[in-house]
Amino acid sequence: MRIAITRLNTGKYPLYGDWLRRRDASVALVDLEQSPDPAAALAESDGLLLPGGADVAPHYYGQIDPESLCTGIDPARDALELRSLERALGAGKPVLGVCRGLQLANVALGGTLLLDLPRAGIPGHGKTDGRDASHDVVVEHASLLGRITRCERGTVNSAHHQAAGIVAPTLRVTARSVDGVVEAMEWADASDRPFLLLVQWHPERMEDPASPFSRPIAEAFLRACADDK
Fold first, then answer.
1. Which one of 99, 151, 160, 161 is the catalytic residue?
2. Domain containing 15 — which CATH number?
3. What domain count does the chain have?
4. What is the pLDDT of residues 37-87, one digit of tens each?
5. Which one of 9, 14, 20, 127 is most buried, by most CB atoms within 10 A?
Protein backbone atom coordinates (compact mmCIF):
# COMPACT_ATOMS: atom_id res chain seq x y z
CA MET A 1 0.00 0.00 0.00
CA ARG A 2 1.23 3.50 -0.87
CA ILE A 3 0.06 6.63 0.96
CA ALA A 4 0.79 10.05 -0.48
CA ILE A 5 1.48 12.81 2.06
CA THR A 6 1.92 16.32 0.77
CA ARG A 7 4.74 17.04 3.23
CA LEU A 8 6.55 14.29 5.10
CA ASN A 9 10.30 14.58 5.62
CA THR A 10 10.91 17.84 7.52
CA GLY A 11 10.30 19.08 11.07
CA LYS A 12 7.53 17.16 12.84
CA TYR A 13 6.07 15.79 9.61
CA PRO A 14 7.71 12.34 9.94
CA LEU A 15 5.30 11.79 12.86
CA TYR A 16 2.52 11.20 10.33
CA GLY A 17 4.44 8.36 8.72
CA ASP A 18 5.34 6.88 12.12
CA TRP A 19 1.68 7.03 13.14
CA LEU A 20 0.51 5.13 10.05
CA ARG A 21 3.33 2.60 10.21
CA ARG A 22 2.48 1.73 13.80
CA ARG A 23 -0.73 0.33 12.34
CA ASP A 24 0.87 -1.24 9.24
CA ALA A 25 4.67 -1.45 9.03
CA SER A 26 4.50 -2.33 5.33
CA VAL A 27 2.98 1.00 4.25
CA ALA A 28 5.06 2.88 1.67
CA LEU A 29 4.99 6.66 2.09
CA VAL A 30 5.32 9.16 -0.74
CA ASP A 31 6.32 12.78 -0.10
CA LEU A 32 4.53 14.72 -2.85
CA GLU A 33 6.38 17.93 -2.06
CA GLN A 34 9.70 16.24 -2.85
CA SER A 35 8.45 14.22 -5.81
CA PRO A 36 9.63 15.28 -9.29
CA ASP A 37 6.11 14.50 -10.57
CA PRO A 38 3.53 14.87 -7.78
CA ALA A 39 0.60 14.07 -10.07
CA ALA A 40 2.13 10.76 -11.15
CA ALA A 41 3.16 9.91 -7.57
CA LEU A 42 -0.38 10.55 -6.36
CA ALA A 43 -1.86 8.50 -9.20
CA GLU A 44 0.26 5.55 -8.09
CA SER A 45 -0.84 5.93 -4.45
CA ASP A 46 -3.82 4.41 -2.67
CA GLY A 47 -4.75 7.42 -0.55
CA LEU A 48 -3.86 11.01 0.33
CA LEU A 49 -3.08 12.51 3.73
CA LEU A 50 -3.17 16.30 4.07
CA PRO A 51 -1.12 17.15 7.18
CA GLY A 52 -1.08 20.14 9.50
CA GLY A 53 0.97 23.28 9.02
CA ALA A 54 0.77 26.99 8.35
CA ASP A 55 -2.25 28.99 7.25
CA VAL A 56 -3.93 28.72 3.86
CA ALA A 57 -3.69 31.98 1.89
CA PRO A 58 -6.94 33.88 2.61
CA HIS A 59 -7.53 34.91 -1.01
CA TYR A 60 -8.54 31.30 -1.70
CA TYR A 61 -11.68 31.84 0.38
CA GLY A 62 -12.38 35.45 -0.59
CA GLN A 63 -10.84 37.14 2.45
CA ILE A 64 -8.25 39.83 2.94
CA ASP A 65 -5.92 40.02 5.94
CA PRO A 66 -5.01 43.67 6.58
CA GLU A 67 -3.84 42.89 10.12
CA SER A 68 -1.55 40.05 9.02
CA LEU A 69 -3.33 37.53 11.22
CA CYS A 70 -2.35 34.68 8.87
CA THR A 71 1.12 33.25 9.38
CA GLY A 72 3.58 31.18 7.39
CA ILE A 73 1.69 31.29 4.10
CA ASP A 74 3.37 29.05 1.54
CA PRO A 75 1.95 29.61 -1.98
CA ALA A 76 3.69 26.57 -3.44
CA ARG A 77 2.28 24.29 -0.75
CA ASP A 78 -1.22 25.75 -1.11
CA ALA A 79 -1.14 25.11 -4.85
CA LEU A 80 0.23 21.58 -4.47
CA GLU A 81 -2.35 20.57 -1.89
CA LEU A 82 -5.31 22.08 -3.70
CA ARG A 83 -4.33 20.28 -6.91
CA SER A 84 -3.61 17.04 -5.07
CA LEU A 85 -6.94 17.07 -3.25
CA GLU A 86 -8.81 17.72 -6.49
CA ARG A 87 -6.99 14.85 -8.21
CA ALA A 88 -7.43 12.45 -5.31
CA LEU A 89 -11.16 13.05 -5.01
CA GLY A 90 -11.56 12.94 -8.78
CA ALA A 91 -9.87 9.54 -8.82
CA GLY A 92 -11.95 8.25 -5.91
CA LYS A 93 -9.00 7.95 -3.51
CA PRO A 94 -9.49 8.04 0.27
CA VAL A 95 -8.47 11.33 1.90
CA LEU A 96 -7.60 12.15 5.50
CA GLY A 97 -7.09 15.79 6.48
CA VAL A 98 -5.44 16.83 9.76
CA CYS A 99 -5.62 20.37 11.20
CA ARG A 100 -4.54 22.52 8.22
CA GLY A 101 -5.73 19.59 6.11
CA LEU A 102 -9.29 20.10 7.37
CA GLN A 103 -9.07 23.80 6.69
CA LEU A 104 -7.63 23.41 3.21
CA ALA A 105 -10.25 20.82 2.23
CA ASN A 106 -13.06 23.06 3.46
CA VAL A 107 -11.67 25.94 1.40
CA ALA A 108 -11.11 23.75 -1.67
CA LEU A 109 -14.73 22.59 -1.57
CA GLY A 110 -16.16 26.10 -1.23
CA GLY A 111 -16.05 26.94 2.47
CA THR A 112 -14.26 29.66 4.43
CA LEU A 113 -12.06 30.00 7.51
CA LEU A 114 -12.07 32.14 10.62
CA LEU A 115 -8.85 34.15 10.35
CA ASP A 116 -7.98 34.07 14.05
CA LEU A 117 -9.84 32.40 16.90
CA PRO A 118 -8.45 34.57 19.73
CA ARG A 119 -9.40 37.72 17.79
CA ALA A 120 -12.90 36.24 17.46
CA GLY A 121 -13.05 35.80 21.24
CA ILE A 122 -12.39 32.05 21.21
CA PRO A 123 -9.20 31.28 23.20
CA GLY A 124 -7.75 27.96 24.24
CA HIS A 125 -7.11 26.20 20.95
CA GLY A 126 -3.49 27.14 20.32
CA LYS A 127 -0.24 25.97 21.84
CA THR A 128 1.03 27.33 25.16
CA ASP A 129 4.78 27.37 25.76
CA GLY A 130 5.23 25.06 22.80
CA ARG A 131 2.77 22.45 24.08
CA ASP A 132 -0.53 21.47 22.52
CA ALA A 133 -3.68 22.57 24.30
CA SER A 134 -6.36 19.99 25.08
CA HIS A 135 -10.14 20.19 25.21
CA ASP A 136 -13.23 18.05 24.81
CA VAL A 137 -15.09 17.46 21.57
CA VAL A 138 -18.66 16.31 21.07
CA VAL A 139 -19.11 13.83 18.22
CA GLU A 140 -22.22 13.27 16.13
CA HIS A 141 -23.17 9.67 16.81
CA ALA A 142 -24.55 8.95 13.32
CA SER A 143 -21.36 9.79 11.45
CA LEU A 144 -18.24 8.21 10.03
CA LEU A 145 -16.25 9.70 12.91
CA GLY A 146 -18.75 8.34 15.42
CA ARG A 147 -18.45 4.86 13.94
CA ILE A 148 -14.64 5.06 13.94
CA THR A 149 -14.17 6.37 17.48
CA ARG A 150 -17.25 4.76 19.06
CA CYS A 151 -17.40 7.86 21.24
CA GLU A 152 -19.85 10.70 21.61
CA ARG A 153 -17.42 12.82 23.61
CA GLY A 154 -13.69 12.79 24.33
CA THR A 155 -10.52 14.81 24.79
CA VAL A 156 -8.24 15.81 21.94
CA ASN A 157 -5.08 17.89 21.55
CA SER A 158 -5.21 21.27 19.86
CA ALA A 159 -2.66 23.52 18.15
CA HIS A 160 -4.40 25.95 15.82
CA HIS A 161 -5.48 29.58 15.68
CA GLN A 162 -7.82 29.27 12.69
CA ALA A 163 -10.88 27.10 12.10
CA ALA A 164 -13.59 26.37 9.57
CA GLY A 165 -16.03 29.24 9.17
CA ILE A 166 -18.71 28.67 6.53
CA VAL A 167 -18.82 24.94 5.89
CA ALA A 168 -18.44 23.81 2.28
CA PRO A 169 -21.77 22.78 0.69
CA THR A 170 -20.76 19.13 0.25
CA LEU A 171 -19.49 18.76 3.84
CA ARG A 172 -21.09 18.48 7.25
CA VAL A 173 -19.73 19.06 10.73
CA THR A 174 -19.51 15.86 12.77
CA ALA A 175 -17.65 17.12 15.86
CA ARG A 176 -17.35 20.43 17.67
CA SER A 177 -15.50 21.63 20.73
CA VAL A 178 -17.64 22.71 23.66
CA ASP A 179 -17.18 26.34 22.60
CA GLY A 180 -18.56 25.59 19.14
CA VAL A 181 -15.40 25.37 17.02
CA VAL A 182 -15.58 22.89 14.13
CA GLU A 183 -13.45 19.87 15.05
CA ALA A 184 -14.35 17.34 12.34
CA MET A 185 -16.06 17.22 8.97
CA GLU A 186 -16.96 14.61 6.39
CA TRP A 187 -19.21 14.29 3.35
CA ALA A 188 -22.76 15.54 3.85
CA ASP A 189 -23.78 12.70 1.54
CA ALA A 190 -21.16 9.98 1.20
CA SER A 191 -23.07 8.02 -1.43
CA ASP A 192 -20.73 7.04 -4.28
CA ARG A 193 -17.95 9.15 -2.76
CA PRO A 194 -14.55 8.06 -1.46
CA PHE A 195 -13.60 7.98 2.21
CA LEU A 196 -13.12 11.55 3.48
CA LEU A 197 -12.42 12.41 7.10
CA LEU A 198 -11.20 15.81 8.26
CA VAL A 199 -10.13 16.40 11.87
CA GLN A 200 -8.88 19.59 13.50
CA TRP A 201 -6.77 17.89 16.18
CA HIS A 202 -3.48 16.03 15.70
CA PRO A 203 -4.05 12.27 16.04
CA GLU A 204 -0.45 11.58 14.99
CA ARG A 205 0.95 13.14 18.17
CA MET A 206 -1.59 12.59 20.91
CA GLU A 207 -0.05 11.71 24.28
CA ASP A 208 -2.16 8.56 24.41
CA PRO A 209 -1.56 6.71 21.11
CA ALA A 210 -4.36 4.28 22.00
CA SER A 211 -6.90 7.11 22.24
CA PRO A 212 -10.10 6.51 20.25
CA PHE A 213 -9.33 9.84 18.61
CA SER A 214 -5.94 8.63 17.33
CA ARG A 215 -5.31 4.94 16.59
CA PRO A 216 -8.77 4.07 15.15
CA ILE A 217 -8.51 7.00 12.73
CA ALA A 218 -5.26 5.66 11.29
CA GLU A 219 -6.75 2.17 11.10
CA ALA A 220 -9.90 3.36 9.34
CA PHE A 221 -7.95 5.41 6.81
CA LEU A 222 -5.62 2.52 6.01
CA ARG A 223 -8.57 0.13 5.64
CA ALA A 224 -10.19 2.51 3.20
CA CYS A 225 -6.95 2.74 1.22
CA ALA A 226 -6.59 -1.04 1.16
CA ASP A 227 -10.21 -1.49 0.05
CA ASP A 228 -9.64 1.00 -2.77
CA LYS A 229 -6.78 -1.01 -4.30
1. 99
2. 3.40.50.880
3. 1
4. 999 999 999 999 999 999 999 999 999 999 999 999 999 999 999 999 999
5. 20
Listed in order, strand segments (DSSP E) in the chain are 2-5, 28-31, 47-50, 95-98, 113-114, 133-139, 153-158, 163-164, 171-177, 182-187, 196-199
Q: Which amino acid is at 75?
A: P
* Mean model confidence pLDDT for the chain: 97
Which amino acid is present at 93? K
Q: Specify whether the CB–CB gap between 91 and 11 falls below 8 A.
A: no
Active site residue 202: yes
Q: Is the dihedral of CA 154, 96, 214, 102 positive or negative?
A: negative
Domain containing residue 143? 2-227
In angstroms, rounded to a whole number, what is the distance separating the alpha carbons of residues 86 and 105?
A: 9
Distance CA 108, CA 86 (A): 8
Band of residue 101 on the pLDDT scale cut at 50, 70, 90: very high
Q: Which of 125, 151, 202, 225 is catalytic?
A: 202
Q: Which of 33, 161, 204, 225 is catalytic?
A: 204
Judge whether 204 counts as a catalytic residue. Answer: yes
